Amino acid sequence: MGYKQRLASWLWPLAVANLLANIGIVVTGAAVRLTGSGLGCPTWPKCTDESYTTHPSMGIHGAIEFGNRMLTFALAIIAIACFFAALWAKDRLSTRYSLIVALGIPLQAVIGGITVLTDLNPWVVSLHFLASMLMIMICLAMLDHLRSPTRSAAPAAIRLTAAAIMLVGWVVLYLGTVVTGAGPHAGDEEAKRNGIDPATISQIHAASVYLLVALTILLLVLAIRSGNRWLTIVTAALLALELLQGVVGWSQYVLDLPVLLVALHMLGAGLLAAGFARIVLATRPHTATHTHHGRLLAWTSGEASPQG
């Protein structure tokens, strides 16, 4: 087996790694902000005016920010490997998805650079975050293409409900960035805030979450009634994640935004983005091109009972 065939055989684990890496970079980016290291490297693309790397005199903040920048290269390596695996596997859709992700990484790096050059402007920071959410969704779409059960298009009411969840989900994610922009974790002590009252925007954000949960419950009921096993499972998983994310969000608000809870909330946001993409895709027709792996996929495709 040549090196092309060997890499092609790694398409699935590389696709999974692509998703995990893009979620991970959101969490490490949050760590930069939560430790006040957003301007640890005060310029871009260099870390300082004289050097691309940090210096011991810049302290821990410089090391944290520079380390996060270096993770971008790891992200790029995974994305490029995934692209060539898809290309050599002759999987056109996976090739397109992985190419978008690979091209999106340098674009994200530029947006990240703009956040530094604008001294962590909260509106630019929110754009940086939302771009990551889109990347996560594209990574999830590739996983859905590679391994999900064969299905026909869902009825119109189900498709519309899933689309509404996606729309409201984006509103929830965006309002979350506005809440962050109004709060204390700016990434640097001198960084400006957006000037919005934190309590007011938090209440608006919470209202959007309530709507999201209500829509997800509605979709779950519709999926169960229609006998759609796959949609039932992915919607139930999304609902559980939303409820957990709500508990974390409420807890961090009541406890005055402890760093660990905020970081966990950022992880939840990345997982939610993947969940929104998953349910929308689950309502669309799909023909599985790979053998189903595991009892769950076999059961949802009607190939086996839950007990195997």
Task: Describe this protein with a few key phrases.
flat; mainly alpha; 73% helix; 10 helices
Q: Return residue spans where pLDDT drops below 50 for at least 5 consecutive residues.
A: none
Query: What is the terminal separation in angstroms?
Result: 33 Å
How would the global form be characterised?
Answer: flat
SSE order, one letter for each helix or strand? HHHHHHHHHH
β-strand number: 0
**Quaternary structure of the protein:** single chain
Largest sheet, strands/sense/barrel: none
Mean pLDDT: 88
Structural class: mainly alpha
Work out the radius of gyration. Answer: 21 Å
Share of helix among residues?
over 70%
Can you walk me through this structure?
This protein is an all-alpha fold and 308 residues long. The protein is built from ten helices and no strands. The two termini are 33 Å apart. The model has no long low-confidence stretch (mean pLDDT 88).
What secondary-structure arrangement, pairings included, does this model have?
Elements: H1 3-8, H2 11-34, H3 59-88, H4 92-117, H5 122-146, H6 156-182, H7 198-226, H8 229-254, H9 259-282, H10 294-300
Helix pairs in contact: 2-3, 2-5, 2-9, 3-4, 4-5, 5-6, 5-9, 6-7, 6-9, 7-8, 8-9
Short précis:
The two termini are 33 Å apart. The longest helix has 30 residues, at 59-88. Helix content is 73%, strand content 0%.
